Amino acid sequence: QVQLVESGGGLVQAGGSLRLSCAASGRPFSSHAMGWFRQAPGKEREFVAAITLNGDITDYSDSEKGRFTISRDNAKNTVYLQMNSLKPEDPAVYYCARHWRAYTTVVRTPTSYDYWGQGTQVTVSS
Are 85 and 25 in contact (CB under 8 A)? Predict the structure, then answer.
């Protein structure tokens, strides 16, 4: 089993920043790509960002490119999402997830991830 615990969400003004963290425990973390997704009320879960096991490749959805940065610290079993220039359309529950297969590249499809955290709420005030 893998446990993923997100933290760092909260209320921020438009244009502000937040840094989300996802701490992993249980099975190996460092051999798997990791992803961040978000889900707003009434909408499907959508891809935000992903990172390979050693951080050499990252991928972002078009709306987040240039504003968000995904990173990881394998020594701490933690993946991060730095979110800058937050917009009114960014509020959602943000989830981190582990790709089901070790030693793969970044993937955007939620069904390719087998372990998920409980999510952390991000709210942006205008």
Answer: no
Two structure tokens written together for 43: 């909408």
Which residue type does 62 have?
Answer: D
* 24-83 pLDDT, tens digit each: 998 777 899 999 999 999 999 999 999 999 999 999 999 888 999 999 999 999 999 999
Three-state DSSP at 51 gives strand
Report the pLDDT averaged over residues 87-98.
94
Q: Residue 24 corresponds to which tokens in the numbers above?
A: 């992993």
- The whole-angstrom separation of Cα 13 and Cα 41 is 19
| DSSP H/E element including 93 | strand 92-102
Task: Give the side-chain half-sphere CA count within 13 A for 70.
Answer: 29
Please report which helix (H) or strand (E) contains residue 16, including its range. Answer: none
Q: What angle do CA 3, 86, 69 make, to 5 degrees?
A: 55
Compute the residue count for the chain: 126
Q: Read off the pLDDT band of 126 (50, 70, 90).
A: confident
